[in-house]
Amino acid sequence: SVDYVLLILVIILVVFGLVVLYSTSAYNGRVKFADAAYYLKKQFFATSIGLMAMYLVSQIDYRRWLHVAWAGYLVSLILSTAVLFIGDEYNGSKRWLSLGPLSFQPAEFAKLAVVVLLASIVSRNASHMKSWKYMFLVILMVLPIVGLVGTNNLSTAIIILGIAVILIFVANPRFLPFIWLGGLGCGFVGIFLSIESYRLERLAIWRNPELYEKGYQTMQGLYAIGSGGIFGVGLGNSMQKLGFVPEAQNDMIFSIICEELGLFGAFLVIVLFGLLIWRLMVIAYARAFWCASFRWRYGPYYDSGNFKYCSGYQYHTQHRYYTAVYQLWRHFGCLSFGRNRVDSQCVPSCKKGTLTT
């Protein structure tokens, strides 16, 4: 079954992205490659491959990924190691591997591999996630890939580490240990910042871009954002993309969105991503914690083909209280559905704004 809300949101974001990319990159494409649509064609090709991959993955039972979790993680370690020796360097950063005419960043594959690996570990050992020792061992498993990626891509390494912490947080009913994990993460980031001086320089530029020559791009991006006003100067009418913002079609594209579509356009983008995150949370909630009696509310997510994944008091009694996020979602259930709409066998009933089991 298809979640049409999620699908429509993805398609809207893809189409919007392609339109904005063409508007932003037409000048650079014409100057560098004599083709205003150069970047659009390249991105459209990648988008087509991504949509095909999305369809193929949607046809695979997600539980099958449990069997390849460790293999995927080992492949990500090998690819990240290969970057250090045979990787391609662009703009001073060695982050890419080439396969014929195609190039990719192994760090992006590592993100997915970490998600699948940790989801596999957590789902098989839910009752152990309360243990501080076990949490530490799970984090320890991720540190090798974080270290490899962090040697040439600190921001992605921080994201991977953040993914690991969030997944463990989802699976743990306690909050206090994560204060210690946060401190450990800050120390880890501090070590990587101190290894290379340019990383500390970037923080200084971020704080006061006007004081540094390398703050030029940041300043031009701020000019673009400020000149957009509430409704922008109009799609395709940006001045900053005409060579003032270097590589405007890349990391700085949001500043051009703000210039051309204004505060309204920027808010629209944020809302679309917010709706996407909301839908993913609804799907996760419905799949993991709600009984088959709620099929009228959550459509395709009421039945996974296995009794224990959908209903049954035993499953919920054993597993639901192991997750901090579930505790938060229980309150959401009270506020959204009221005491008369909560199945007593699946979710604790609501009573006067509180929850009782």
> What is the arithmetic mean of pLDDT?
78
Task: Count all strands and give the number.
Answer: 5
List the total number of helices. 14
Helix percentage: 55-70%
Given helix and strand content, the structural type is: mainly alpha
The backbone outline, from C-alpha atoms, is globular
User: What share of the residues does DSSP label as strand, in percent?
Assistant: 5-15%
Order of helices and strands: HHHEEEHHHHHHHHHHHEE
Report the sheet with the most strands, covering strand number, pairing sense and barrel closure. Answer: 3 strands, antiparallel
Which sequence of strands runs across the widest sheet? 1-2-3
Low-confidence stretches: 290-324, 334-357
How far apart the termini lie comes to 33 Å
Radius of gyration: 23 Å
Descriptive notes:
By secondary structure, the chain is mainly alpha-helical. Helix content is 66%, strand content 5%. Helix 5 runs antiparallel to helix 6. The longest helix is centred in the C-terminal third of the chain and has 37 residues.
A few lines on this structure:
This protein is mainly alpha-helical and 357 residues long.
Summarize the SSE layout with pairings.
Elements: H1 4-33, H2 38-58, H3 69-86, E1 88-90, E2 93-99, E3 102-104, H4 106-124, H5 132-150, H6 154-171, H7 177-195, H8 197-207, H9 216-228, H10 253-289, H11 295-298, H12 307-310, H13 313-319, H14 324-337, E4 349-351, E5 354-356
Helix pairs in contact: 1-2, 1-10, 3-4, 3-5, 4-5, 4-6, 5-6, 6-7, 7-8, 9-10
Task: Note the main attributes of this structure.
357 residues, mainly alpha, 3-stranded antiparallel β-sheet, two-stranded antiparallel sheet, 14 helices, 5 strands, disordered C terminus
